[in-house]
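Quality-control log, excerpt.
Job 1 of 2 completed; input and output follow.
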Amino acid sequence: MGAASVEGCAVKHEVQFWNRIVEGLWRPDRVLNRVENGVVDGMPDAYFTIRGVSGWMELKCPETPSRPTTALFSGSHQLSLAQRNWLLAHRQAGGRAWVAIETERCVMLLGAKYADDINSMPLSQLIVAASAWWTRPMNPISWEGFAVCLRGVQP
């Protein structure tokens, strides 16, 4: 599969992940917006406000490598330098920013403080570093945990 095909596949998975997030989290008192921005390089994919707490999520849907010691993002679709810089700068300014990762088997939220390390970490290390993680498919209780995590302390 060529690089353009892999990137297109990753985008398709991110759209599906976003649709699951909206379905799982939506309530009348919550704002969930997918952001497509060609102007600000590195800006995350999604913006949320949940019970008065706002933040950003970069969505990633990597394929799990066959070797458990291989970095989850060893292939394409890594966090770009611009994405890492955006997440870290936003966090340093006191904002909430997350990397929401969905694999074939789990969903996890990693705080922006891990932006420089995410690309080199295997799945087992990402799960340990995650503020929270859930097995798929997620149920309503899992989605409430996801919402609570998004609102929690600065990642």
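Job 2 of 2 completed; input and output follow.
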Amino acid sequence: MARSAAARRTRPARRGAKRKSVVKPTAAEDRANVRAYFAAMPPAQRKALAILRDAIRSAAPGAAEAFSYRIPAMRLEGRIVVWYAAFKNHVSLFPIGAAIRRAHAAEVEGYETSTGTIRFPLDEPVPVRLVHRLVKARIAQVRARERVTPRPAARR
């Protein structure tokens, strides 16, 4: 049987070889990274990010700040629910997939979207109620996925 090019490039792990451990940042490190991210933003982006973060927190009161993919996120029950970020002309919330966009099509209309992302322009107020609904829908989606496909047990 011929191996694909990708399979030929990767070597199988040697028996007894130690796996590289991934060091996850602590909650304090995540909060510090989020603070640094906010501090690095110009005032307009910082203000919009703060409003967006507050809207996310109101939809997910038990969520903790996280920092992943070099942008802020919110973690609920050990899983990242949403990421949010600021750019030159907008702030983004993701992942907001096709199913959530379809369910909220009328409300999302008028905002720029792409695969998994919704963008809120900086020259308009952040739609707090819409963000609240989108985050609630995303939480329901993550919880439903957990019930259907639980994570595999860790190997010893």
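Post-run check on job 2. The domain at 25-148 is CATH 3.90.1150.200 (Aspartate Aminotransferase, domain 1).
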